[in-house]
Amino acid sequence: MNDCLISQQRKAIRKHIRQVRQNLSPQQQFEAEKNITQQALHFIMQKKARRIGLYLSFDGEISTKQLIEKLWQHESEVYLPLLHPFSPHHLLFLRYQENTNLVKNKFGILEPKLDVRNVLPTEKLDIIFTPLVAFDKQGNRLGMGGGFYDRTLQNWQQKNFVPVGLAHQCQQVDALPTESWDIPLFTILSA
């Protein structure tokens, strides 16, 4: 399949699934968050994970607010992504606590204000929970198109962390058209 056709298909899937996701009712969003929080906590306990990479929900993504609060209660360390200031299309992960100062990045997404004392290399994370627009049964994820997570997750098998997608069930498609740079996830939890 030629690159142009794959790109068009991915763009169409991205547009359609984002619309479906944004049309979920507040009740559906709430129930999904509750369900995904339980699944994620179970997965974290299974892996005996202590340092968790997460994200703050945006654009109808399944909410991580409840999960973050539960992790804080269990004294786990939570890290959020920050757009790397010197390396375009890369992410840094910074420690996130209740008093962390958040700012909006160029995409309007909240992220921790850069403080090098709070940066943790991805190799030291146990799990990185990733947002996604769409996914398939093979563990492929389709993001927003910037490649930030694909670059972050490269060679994850040689690092200590496990990449896990979080999604609404309505974001699943039969098969995603993939590109050479796409990084399949270890697993995807959906609700």
List the helices and strands and how they pair.
Blueprint: H1 3-22, H2 26-47, E1 51-53, H3 65-73, E2 77-83, E3 91-96, E4 102-104, E5 110-112, E6 119-120, E7 127-130, E8 134-135, E9 141-142, H4 148-153, E10 162-167, E11 187-190
Parallel strand pairs: 1-2, 1-7, 7-10, 10-11
Antiparallel strand pairs: 2-3, 3-6, 4-5, 8-9
What's the quaternary structure here? Answer: single chain
Helix fraction by DSSP (H/I, runs of at least 4):
25-40%
Order of helices and strands: HHEHEEEEEEEEHEE
Main pleated-sheet profile: 7 strands, mixed
Q: Tell me what portion of residues adopts beta-strand conformation.
A: 15-25%
Question: Looking at the structure, what is the overall shape?
Answer: globular
Could you say how many structural domains there are in total? 1
Distance between the termini: 32 Å
Give a count of the beta strands, DSSP E runs of length 2 or more. 11
